[in-house]
Design a protein that fits this description.
The chain has 8 helices and 5 strands, in the order ααβαβαβαββααα. It is an alpha+beta fold. Strands 2-3-1-4-5 form a 5-stranded antiparallel beta sheet. The termini are far apart.
């Protein structure tokens, strides 16, 4: 009788810990699959801790994100860590170091600079001191908060397109020169981020 009773107690303990929740695993797998799909489409991701924001501020930030074509959403660190590791996308597994504490993610699907701009402009315009930028990911690289700020200072996708289209109004050499200038500007920004990271690594 005592053996049977002990078995019942053990079974109850497993159920309390979640071992008896049959639906938990499929839900977890579905959540990871959804995050992998988003990471696969994203051109950039910015990670923030918005724990210090009010409900009104979070609502405003979500609205500004949508207007800029950025998806702003909360996800569990454990699920995002699994999704990043299983995504197969270069550099994404390395964001695990940023997945500590409350984390919200800003996904940029069209303009890789948009998430950084939305977050940085929101902080600047609202004089927000409670929104912590943890870092991000772009083109196979993990970005620091400083990198995010540097990205935010780049021209928007619309401005870059306008520069290229402006060159199309001129003779072909004008277009080529305009396009080359835009490409150089982006290349310089990426190179500056790389050098900044190398310098920080050397100092560390």
């Amino acid at each position: 009788l005592s053996a049977a009773w002990n078995a019942i107690i053990k079974g109850m303990a497993v159920a309390i810990r979640g071992g008896g929740n049959v639906g938990a695993r499929p839900e977890k797998e579905a959540a990871v699959a959804e995050l992998k799909e988003k990471l696969g489409r994203a051109k950039s991701v910015v990670l923030v801790n918005n724990r210090g924001l009010s409900v009104a501020q979070v609502t405003k930030l979500r609205k500004k994100s949508r207007e800029a074509g950025v998806e702003y959403r909360v996800a569990k660190n454990t699920l995002m860590r699994i999704a990043a590791q299983e995504s197969g996308v270069a550099g994404l597994a390395d964001i695990s170091s940023l997945l500590e504490g409350p984390t919200t993610f800003a996904f940029g699907y069209e303009d890789p600079v948009a998430p950084a701009k939305v977050i940085s402009n929101f902080i600047k315009e609202g004089k927000i001191t409670t929104l912590e930028v943890k870092g991000g990911w772009l083109e196979g690289r993990v970005l620091t908060p400083g990198d995010i700020k540097a990205l935010a200072d780049l021209p928007s996708r619309e401005v870059l397109l306008a520069q290229v289209l402006g060159g199309m109004q001129a003779p072909m050499y004008g277009f080529a020169g305009s396009l080359a200038a835009v490409l150089r500007q982006f290349a310089y920004a990426v190179e500056a981020l790389r050098q900044q990271r190398e310098a920080a690594g050397a100092q560390g």
